[in-house]
Structures
1.
Amino acid sequence: MPLLSERIVAQLSRMPGSDHSFAKQVCAPDGAEVRDRLRMMVERIGEPMSTRATDLLSSLDNRRFFQGFAEISVVSMLVRQGWRLSGLHGAGPRIEVTRPDGTLFSLSVLSFLHQTRPGGDEQTRQRLVDALSRVASKHRFVVLIRRWLPHDLDPEPVRRSLELWLQQVGSGAWEGRYAAYEDEKLSLEFCLTGEKARGRQSPLAFALGPFVAHRAMEVLEPRVVRELDRHVAGPCRDMPLLVAAVSDQPWCINHGYLRDFLYGRPTMTLHEGTSSSFLFGGQDGPCAFRDPLYSAFSGLLIVDREPARPLELRAEALLNPWAKVPLAVSDLGVRAFASPRDAAPPDLRWYVGAGEALPLG
């Protein structure tokens, strides 16, 4: 059965409700180009993945749909670089792909769905900033947003509480420069700058946060480690492994977090103009790439997409110089954090591949 046939498209587009479903959105009239790109990828990959992709991409369950989207996107990316799909095995499934030089790799594609939409959160953040800028006070302050804000945020109670605090500051009834506002949905911290607003200057000096990189790593790291453990315990533990983490929203992960998780802390950082390289000597703490148990782990692909650009993917790779079967930058064709071959100790830096934005299909 062809992927998203006209019959399926007609059925899904007429289905009442389910507007949150990715499958229904793709089957809408303005999703025609995305459907064409998906079909193009599935045709390029061929069997045995096309049957699985047809099943997953027809599902109203967003988790199943996006898993199918993630798998065909990553495999299609590799096929464009000369790789070949060699098979699907077992639950998951375990995908086998062959590098152009004939080396067989196991490919694990992990899909991640965000519960919140960053676009909406940015709008909510701006509503909070606008409200705090209207505080009737000359005392300037900074606000730290500890976590993403709820979409239905009413910033007025926060503004009124802040005004009461600043009144206490002005009357001398408050000692110190810090205050916090917390309820079941919000966690904010305020700090006085020690300056007074001049003229029409806003009392809000600036807003920081929310910081999502640490939370994203708390989700990504255990998923990757579980996949590594599954590979080590499986029948193909000696086969080199490439893991792809595909998100429906921008990852927003600091590269420092990824380096610490995968490589450990560098012994030296060298700055050359606008670029930097990192030297890694003796192991400083646990890290995935240098763990002898995970010596088959050849690299991690980080893939995401911008909701406003449905026809593009963004991808970059972090490659393991200590792997039994290392990957080269040219193997993946994307921006990669890698070391020149035979560099000892590994001298890692970012190498430009095809660019961050990759056309879907």
2.
Amino acid sequence: MWTRSLLKQNAKDALRGRYWRSFLLCFLLTLLGIGDYSPQYRVTYDLASDELDNLRYGPVWEGNASVQDLWAELNDSNLLFLLQFGVVLLLIGVVIGLCWAFFLVNPLTVGRNRYFMESRQAPAPMKTVLTIFRPPYMNVVKVSALVSLKIALGSLLIIPGIYWQYCYWMVPYLLAENPYLTTGRAMELSRQMMEGEKLRTFVLVLSFIGWIVLSALTLGIGLLFLEPYYQATMAELYAVLRSKAFSLNLTDENELCGFVRHDAGA
């Protein structure tokens, strides 16, 4: 039976002497939009109210036509073209976003999990994250994408999305250990591992709320330093539930052979 304090203490022990390497890794992944607690930064541009008025009502180029005059000259065909153009841009943005998530973010998340699992035993090189791009990379993409889509569809009804998120919490870790797992098997084994553990995992995640509040006082910068600790704790959770799965004969060493160190260039 695991406790939150035990997992967190084990995470601290695993990070001892390896924290800054893990911090750098999490920071680099944050720049790609990968992280559970790392802040996501966006560049915004603020205009004073008088500048906005100038844009709305002031002259355009060097002529006397205002924005309202130009808008009035647009006919229905122009408006239809602009609408179609906007829809096309939106669809292109959606496709690019999905490709970014499916082919980069999800696999790197799996690679990050492998790094933290290997780091439990010995210092792991940062390039461990990139080993996921070796065969069977496309299987990792497929399984991660299908699981993400199921959770996303469930999120439309809120409760099913939250439930499925915790049911399939261990899928990225299972793929990190065995990237050959099929979608059905990865989802099934994750559900079995999370049986009776979903609420406890939710409470474990919630236990970081104090650190999040403190990090908010630093405008989110503190979240960068929290991320390695959080990921190391989640790795400890997987290790415990993995042992539980073995004890219940839910899996064996042929399916989950452990996190053996290997060179990304091998």
3.
Amino acid sequence: MILTVLALYTSFLASSVKAPQLIVPYPKNGYKIAMALCLANALLFLGVSIVTGALFRMNFDIGRVYEFRTEFSQSLDVGIFAYLNLWTQKIFTPFLLAVGLHRKNWMIVAFCIGMHILYFGLTQHRQHLFVPALVFFAWYVYKKQWPFTYGLILSGVFVLFSTILIMGLDLKVLGALIIRRAFFVAASVTEGWVHYFSENPYVYFSDNILSSFLATEYTNQSLPMYVGDRILPGLDLAYNAGIVATGFAQLGALGVVIYALIMGFYLRAINSLIRNGVPAFIPAAILFLPVRTAWAASDLFASLLSHGLIVGLLVVWLYGSHTQTDGKR
């Protein structure tokens, strides 16, 4: 709890510290480049799913996702596609959906919603079913110019009524999706990591970045698998955790502060683009999943690269050229 508060406060300070406002230069035709990039990758994912045959083996049974997840990943996430597929699902398609809503292009909106349903069927990650609703919510809040407190109140009401409904009707699957996964899993896993590395040596980045220079028991290990095997031996479980847990694993409380600072500076860069004209809901819509992943389910550096934080920043930057050209926000 204390480490989480420390991380949130550090990230907030880094993102809000006063500094001269930068005028961000945008590339010519950046908006068109962003749209073409996102659409091309969505179509590429569709093509790969056809070529590999994964499209014809889709599963839409929410209760059986773990039976098929590894199989589909082995078919689709090969080589560079391990990165491209994640970026397409978490950045490119949500961006297209956000732009479609902003421009009231319902053909793009329908295409993106269909793609997210397809992503669920092909990846077995249930979060894809909720992304269109999150993007729509971000767009609607921006359109209505609601204050931040409205969003918090609505979120609280949604969680309250969802909990009452789930408990009253014994909806176990829905409860696992909305309540347990969102509020308890990440916290429990983080506590497990902190407890383990409070009693064992820190990693000091010997698992990856410094593995060539520093040999430890963690060298060339997948930390989520390593920790999972120590905490729940024999289950072959990836104990994925966010920046609080992984930062602590690397350098203790100092690692948490460093990771939180990097995240804060990242958010500051996004804020700079918003101040330079990018509609606030665009980065909010496309970065919700990557930022949530960074805080709850992945090491910061993996989130920056694999889960699309850097790519998302690039797409938002490219979109910024459009706001300067036509003045629409």
